[in-house]
Design goal:
This protein is of the alpha+beta class and about 650 residues long. The protein folds into three domains: about 5-215, Alpha-Beta Complex (Spore Coat Polysaccharide Biosynthesis Protein SpsA, Chain A); about 325-355 and about 390-510, Immunoglobulin-like, CATH 2.60.40; about 520-625, Immunoglobulin-like (Sandwich), CATH 2.60.40. About 30% of the residues lie in helices and about 35% in strands. Strands 1, 2, 3, 4, 5, 6, 7, 8 and 9 form a nine-stranded mixed β-sheet that branches. Strands 24, 25, 27, 28, 29, 30, 31, 32 and 33 form a nine-stranded antiparallel β-sheet that branches. A hairpin with a 2-residue loop joins strand 11 (about 340-350) and strand 12 (about 355).
């Protein structure tokens, strides 16, 4: 078969981190004869060369090329391009990994949409990844109509004849931002770029020791010299005007302004901070016209203006204020509606535990940072627009899978409210009120949410701030009462909202990854049994939401020597709330004994069931329900917190006694 995809992996001393990369390549859903992996060993001095040789000897579609160390990733990637036989080339770093279906999905998507470049959705494990770009699938995208420029890492799929047509290769040698130069030119020359957002294709990983090249402190002079090369590509392939300004704005915002904000700036040593600022100032003055900074958000405009004015002291004062700004949120309501979880919440930005305030100026609102007058004067002289575009503020609800870092935005209905600040005439705060809908069947950008623990977050975007917070620790009584699990989809999967321990935030357990359902079913279950002929019909009410009906199993566990057996049951929605369970139990199987029924859901692993808070006692053709004050398998969250506090007190007392 022709090779569809060649995966090129530059390798230098990854140690054990390469194992996840290798494993993900071997798990790909594409047949082995339709893709190849090319590991280019760039002079590794650890045990990796031998590991790769053994891999290539065992798997015909795994290849390794050994070369002397070149100093960076550019040359090994170029060597991989030269050796590739595939129709497309996918670049992967040796400490990252791919989703199991990534190559197949990206290849098919690229062919279907005649794309020169395919950008697969990324998840960051300790690393930031683009978010807005992956809000939706974008089969036909370019730098003018999609935020492609926010994603300049090389971890994409490129059509090989496209790379060869324009002789697109990475700059080589020990340098920075070689991927910016390569990817920017690819975007600007591509006839079409396709963005696949409904499947996690690439996992971008921060090593535990933070030894990834991107986390090392760089030489500012060399870094911004390399950055200018990316700007040169934009100047060569675009005309002066709004598009060029918009592309340049990415480097001004990400590589310059954001390095001069908040804690990111203040944690740098003073001498390095000054050196970094000096190089940034040079680039801003040399390369960017007024249209570049004009498109930034107000807080970013302020920093950009102070950079251009060469005022590091005022930037530091602004950073000290910004570092304290946080997102806050309150869960107002939680309820299920036909298999969709509706989440009502409010959110706003706060600083020092108090809401961020804005000063009224006619029909506008202005940023009002509590800075020295000299700094405020400098901001005014910079020409920055300090008006707060509160009509553009947004609060998103995001689901993040705890194990992988995969993120998906959920649909939100939003309203913005301005509230007066007590004791401060002319000042107001902004409250964002929202209702989000989480449909587990489509919540992954149209696809089904996978099994796992999904944390619920609120992300606020306002005035140049992008802040997020967990949701649930502050909540109304209504939200607490509305928290129940649901059986959704076909076959039915459990989606269980629960409060995390010890903070009480909202998370979703999908596929019985925790024992939390045991807590929900640990109260007495209303139930009755009616016997007709040789069948005992059990009817019970469970604290679950079932849209329509769900066919599951009931595991009958004998409390004596009787064997365990399963029986099919039906769960249906009750108008009064909860789900009605109906199970027809053969009297012959019940015999004379006591039985504990437990739910056996399709997603349960290893036949694990969740016991109901009742037992059935069969005796001489009659069956009696005996309620059980069930005890969960482990203490409830509040009880666990109490036990931990008690244990801490005991340890402290023992230490005092020993002294």
């Amino acid at each position: 078969m022709p090779i569809k995809v060649s995966v090129v992996i530059p390798v230098y001393n990854p140690g054990a981190y390469i194992e996840d990369c290798i494993a993900s390549l071997l798990r790909q859903s594409l047949p082995d004869d339709e893709y190849e992996a090319i590991f280019v060993n760039d002079g590794s001095t650890d045990g990796t060369p031998g590991r790769l040789d053994r891999l290539a000897a065992e798997y015909p579609h795994m290849h390794v090329i050994h070369q002397e160390a070149s100093g960076w990733s550019g040359k090994p990637r170029n060597v991989g391009i030269g050796a590739a036989r595939g129709e497309f080339i996918q670049f992967v770093d040796n400490d990252d990994w791919l989703g199991d279906e990534a190559l197949e999905r990206m290849y098919n998507y690229g062919v279907e949409n005649d794309a020169d470049v395919i950008v697969g959705k990324m998840a960051g494990k300790g690393r930031t990844v683009p978010r807005e770009l992956f809000r939706e699938n974008r089969p036909h995208a370019n730098v003018g109509d999609a935020p492609l420029i926010d994603s300049l890492t090389p971890h994409k799929m490129f059509r090989k004849i496209f790379l060869d047509k324009y002789n697109l290769r990475y700059p080589e040698g020990r340098r920075r931002l070689e991927d910016h130069v390569f990817v920017t030119e690819a975007y600007l020359r591509a006839a079409n770029v396709s963005v696949l957002s409904d499947y996690i294709c690439y996992y971008h990983v921060k090593r535990d020791d933070a030894s990834n090249a991107g986390f090392q402190r760089f030489d500012p002079a060399g870094y911004f010299k390399n950055l200018r090369e990316a700007l040169d590509v934009v100047e060569e392939l675009t005309e002066p005007g709004p598009l060029r300004d918009r592309l340049f704005r990415r480097w001004l915002r990400v590589e310059m302004v954001e390095r001069m904000r908040g804690q990111r700036l203040l944690k740098l040593p003073q001498d390095y901070r000054q050196e970094l600022f000096g190089e940034i100032h040079k680039v801003v003055v040399e390369r960017f016209g007024p249209g570049v900074a004009a498109g930034l958000q107000p807080t970013q405009q302020i920093v950009a203006g102070l950079i251009a004015a060469n005022r590091l002291d005022d930037i530091e004062a602004f950073a000290k204020w910004e570092k304290g700004i946080r997102a806050s949120g309150a869960l107002e309501s939680l309820s299920w509606d036909d298999g969709t979880l509706r989440v009502g919440f409010t959110a706003e930005c706060a600083s020092g535990g108090k809401p961020v305030t804005f000063r009224a100026d006619g029909d506008k609102h202005l940023l009002a940072p509590p800075l020295p007058q000299s700094s405020l004067d400098a901001i005014a002289l910079s020409g920055a627009d300090t008006s707060a575009p509160l009509g553009q503020s947004r609060a998103d609800l995001v689901l993040r899978e705890r194990g992988t870092g995969a993120e998906f935005f959920q649909p939100v209905e939003l309203s913005r409210e301005s509230a007066a600040v007590k004791g401060r005439v002319g000042y107001s705060r902004q409250i964002l009120r929202a209702t989000a809908e989480i449909d587990p069947r489509t919540a992954a950008n149209g696809a089904e949410l996978g099994d796992g623990i999904w944390d619920v977050l609120v992300r606020i975007s306002s005035c140049g701030w992008a802040k997020e917070t967990r949701l649930g620790s502050v909540r109304s009584d209504d939200a607490g009462q509305g928290r129940t699990g649901a059986l959704v989809g076909s076959p039915a999967r459990l989606v269980l909202p629960y409060w995390t321990d010890p903070h009480g935030n909202l998370s979703l357990d999908i596929g019985l990854r925790t024992d939390r359902l045991s807590y929900d079913l640990a109260t007495v279950t209303p139930a009755e049994v009616t016997v007709t002929g040789d069948v005992a019909r059990l009817t019970a009410t469970l604290p679950l939401h079932v849209p329509g009906r769900a066919d599951v199993m009931l595991k009958m566990t004998g409390l004596g020597t009787s064997p365990t057996w399963n029986v099919p049951v039906v769960l249906t929605d009750r108008p009064a709330g909860g789900a009605e369970l109906i199970a027809d139990l053969p009297l012959g199987d019940l015999a004379d004994g006591r039985w504990r029924p437990g739910l056996l859901l399709p997603a349960a692993r290893e036949g694990r069931s969740v016991a109901l808070a009742l037992t059935l006692r069969a005796d001489g053709g009659t069956v009696v329900v005996e309620p059980v004050a069930a005890v969960a398998k482990s203490p409830a969250p509040a009880r666990r917190s109490m036990l931990r506090r008690l244990a801490g007190r005991v340890r402290r007392a023992l230490r005092t006694y020993k002294k």
